[in-house]
């Protein structure tokens, strides 16, 4: 999912920053297809292009708290059960265990390959052709991304690659058994390229919803709790709204329902909340960043502390044995609890047997806090300087993809968090 470029700082910023394909034609066609499938809308919501987010859903009437935003029949969800009842279920009948992301991605690619013959074509046509997760940065851009992004990206990329190679191994075996596409007689290992699989994998990653419970299906799947919900993925995210989702039963049928706990005026954009995600998580998983995300934090570790102060072996071993250094960070609210405790231990002159007592009783005096803040400022300035250097290097990149621009915005947001934290510490 893409996004618009960040507004200048002196302008009022919205609580979201995401952009879909800049057209409602495909989403309008999707809505008509759903209506043809006997879907009954619970509210008047219309695809619309908004200045800040691009494509989203607009309320055509006022929406009250607890109104049902969407109620989609389970039969219109793409689940692993859908795959198990399809032609390609044979791919997943081996002894291997596949994750639901791979299974759903493979199904999307097969249906996309069918083109007009696919029953899911209106939904497939509504999906973006690319995404703005860091995976979709160019090779040159990836070499410029900061280490805290590339370290996570390497894990996600490896997971996707391993999933693809495992799938290809199965498809190669099936080719020898003459398992081919019934529409074109091509073998599936020729149909599904790594580039296509990456698109499908991230389509599921950015758009799938979680369902409680597991399906009763024939194929072996790890984490069988994902589903793709047509029309639902037109909702944009904000951390300033609350909505609840659940699988409900009405008579003999099941529905995926989303209920809003926020009211909306007619003509405004209707949002849902993807969960409690900071901007790094949003960028890695969904490909966008929201301004002034209250969940943002900039983490640091003992190696950062050691660049600013000498740590004795006794202190170092104590922190590691008790895992006290696992979650140190700066936020717009200042140093977090773990950071304060670790910096206290690194700077205190009291005896070791008093450390725990002072920490857990929250009994740090003014001198303790002064030393903590002094060291915290040194680390903060060091992190801020590194972020600024990374940002300058990124901005010198001549051609910037949407994915890379999201990374630029991420660093700008992190620098702003550190500036807010600086004010708190200096008070």
Describe this structure in words.
This protein folds into two domains: 25-285, set domain protein methyltransferase, domain 1 (Alpha-Beta Complex); 298-426, no CATH class. With 427 residues, it is an alpha+beta fold. The strands form five sheets. A four-stranded mixed sheet has the order 1-2-12-9, with no helix packed on it. The two termini are 40 Å apart. The chain has helices spanning 25-36, 80-84, 100-114, 121-126, 139-144, 147-176, 188-191, 194-207, 279-285, 302-306, 313-321, 337-347, 355-360, 366-395, 402-426, and strands at residues 45-50, 54-59, 68-73, 78-79, 98-99, 209-210, 221-222, 226-228, 236-237, 243-250, 253-260, 269-272, 298-299, 329-331, 334-335. Mean pLDDT is 89; it is low at 1-22. The longest helix is centred in the middle third of the chain and has 30 residues, at 147-176.
Strand content range: 5-15%
CATH topology term of the largest domain:
set domain protein methyltransferase, domain 1
**Average pLDDT, to the nearest integer?**
89
Give the helices and strands as they follow along the chain.
HEEEEHEHHHHHHEEEEEEEHEHHEEHHHH
Sheet of most strands: 4 strands, mixed
CATH architecture of the largest domain: Alpha-Beta Complex
**In CATH, what is the class of the largest domain?**
Alpha Beta
Estimate percent helicity.
Answer: 40-55%
Determine Rg (CA atoms, Å). 25 Å
How do the helices and strands line up, and which of them pair or pack?
Elements: H1 25-36, E1 45-50, E2 54-59, E3 68-73, E4 78-79, H2 80-84, E5 98-99, H3 100-114, H4 121-126, H5 139-144, H6 147-176, H7 188-191, H8 194-207, E6 209-210, E7 221-222, E8 226-228, E9 236-237, E10 243-250, E11 253-260, E12 269-272, H9 279-285, E13 298-299, H10 302-306, H11 313-321, E14 329-331, E15 334-335, H12 337-347, H13 355-360, H14 366-395, H15 402-426
Parallel strand pairs: 5-7, 9-12
Antiparallel strand pairs: 1-2, 2-12, 3-11, 4-8, 6-8, 10-11, 13-14, 14-15
Helix pairs in contact: 3-8, 12-14, 14-15
